[in-house]
């Protein structure tokens, strides 16, 4: 998954989608995931980074990551 190039992300975790005019907020981990996606990291690499950095079990990270990804797609932030 890729984040649309025109989606703006602030340092405070606000996302702005100029396609729809909508804005959203994400927590710190959401910001990191979006940054990694914009950098072109693979989904598996992102889940491993989050698992290692926050010492969360991989099943929880995978479930939460997939939920977050579905949310990005539903709000037309990803392609």
Give a topology summary.
Elements: E1 8-9, E2 14-17, E3 22-25, H1 28-39, H2 43-54, H3 58-74
Antiparallel strand pairs: 1-2, 2-3
Helix pairs in contact: 2-3
Please tag this protein with its features.
79 residues; alpha+beta
Describe this structure in words.
By secondary structure, the protein is α+β, with helices and mostly antiparallel strands. It has one domain (8-74). It has three helices and three strands, in the order βββααα. It has helices at 28-39, 43-54, 58-74; strands spanning 8-9, 14-17, 22-25. A three-stranded antiparallel sheet has the order 1-2-3, with no helix packed on it. Helix 2 (43-54) packs across helix 3. The longest helix has 17 residues, at 58-74. The chain is globular, with a radius of gyration of 12 Å. The mean pLDDT is 93.
In short:
By secondary structure, the protein is an alpha+beta fold.
Helix fraction by DSSP (H/I, runs of at least 4): 40-55%
Mean pLDDT: 93
Number of domains: 1
Poorly predicted runs of 5 or more residues:
none
Derived from helix and strand composition plus strand pairing, the structural class reads: alpha+beta
Strand order of the largest sheet: 1-2-3
Euclidean distance between termini CA atoms: 6 Å
Written as H for each helix and E for each strand, in order along the chain, the element string is EEEHHH
Number of strands: 3
Major beta-sheet overview? 3 strands, antiparallel
Q: State which percent range the strand residues make up.
A: 5-15%
Quaternary structure: single chain
Rg, nearest Å: 12 Å
The tally of helices reads 3
